[in-house]
């Protein structure tokens, strides 16, 4: 399979962490739309949102998605990539979309341990657990709509990689 693999899911589900390990397992390239924007603009998500609002950030991440999409890459997307119908359709048409799904409490525990506030400015102004519950309620259907496969991402990263490989009927490169 040479199609790109897109990882979607909420903040903290492991799109970046699992994406790096998956790309390594498949001997593929890895790109991350949040990191792409950071490198290209020299601005964090918080900086972009402060200057351009969330609409500005969302427009930039759609452009980033188009720019990084190529054969044989694993793409870790931002947690809100699925909000735009056009992004969901683009990913489904261009590649294979994997939803890394984990319960709210696991996501909250991970984000509290490593908040990275510059890349994860508040979406709701609420405490982290409340925010995640609210965001998952609003987006669960969108992650599922976008996805070809839903993978339990509550396990350790290597186990999640193995589950993705099994869903794709793909073997580790070496
Ligand atoms: N499967 C896992 N098991 C344990 N910890 C994990 C797992 N996946 C990710 N983590 C940890 O959770 C934190 C968030 O992971 P990561 O940055 O990969 O999430 P993300 O889905 O890319 O989030 P974002 O949408 O904000 O980019 C990191 O500190 C990472 O080490
Ligand atoms: O869930 C979200 O809306 C976001 C997740 C992060 O990956 C970043 O893309 C940004 O902080 C927005
Ligand atoms: Mg990430």
Structure description:
Helix 5 packs across helix 6. Helix content is 55%, strand content 13%. With 174 residues, the protein is of the alpha/beta class. Strands 2-3-1-4-5 form a 5-stranded parallel beta sheet, with helices on both faces. The protein has one domain: Rossmann fold (3-Layer(aba) Sandwich), CATH 3.40.50.300. The protein binds adenosine-5'-triphosphate (ATP), (3R,4S,5R)-3,4,5-trihydroxycyclohex-1-ENE-1-carboxylic acid and magnesium ion. Magnesium ion binds next to helix 1.
CATH topology: Rossmann fold
Determine the oligomeric state from the structure.
single chain
Overall outline: globular
Whole-number radius of gyration?
15 Å
Count of distinct structural domains = 1
Bound molecules: adenosine-5'-triphosphate, (3R,4S,5R)-3,4,5-trihydroxycyclohex-1-ENE-1-carboxylic acid, magnesium ion
* Rounded average pLDDT: 97
Largest sheet: 5 strands, parallel
Residue share in β-strands = 5-15%
Helix content: 55-70%
CATH architecture descriptor name: 3-Layer(aba) Sandwich
Count the E strands.
5
CATH superfamily: P-loop containing nucleotide triphosphate hydrolases
């Amino acid at each position: 399979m040479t199609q790109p693999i897109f990882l979607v899911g909420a903040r903290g589900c492991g799109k970046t962490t699992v994406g790096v390990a998956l790309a390594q397992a498949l001997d593929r390239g890895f790109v991350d739309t949040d990191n792409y924007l950071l490198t290209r603009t020299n601005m964090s998500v918080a900086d972009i949102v402060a200057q351009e609002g969330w609409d500005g950030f969302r427009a930039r991440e759609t452009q980033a998605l188009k720019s990084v999409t190529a054969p044989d890459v694993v793409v870790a997307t931002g947690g809100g990539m699925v909000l735009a119908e056009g992004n969901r359709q683009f990913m489904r048409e261009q590649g294979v979309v994997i939803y890394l799904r984990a319960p709210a409490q696991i996501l909250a525990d991970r984000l509290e341990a490593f908040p990275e506030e510059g890349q994860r400015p508040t979406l709701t102004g609420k405490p982290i657990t409340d925010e995640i519950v609210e965001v998952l309620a609003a987006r669960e259907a969108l992650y599922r709509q976008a996805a070809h496969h839903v993978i339990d991402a509550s396990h350790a990263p290597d186990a999640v990689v193995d589950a993705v490989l099994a869903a794709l009927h793909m073997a580790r490169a070496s």
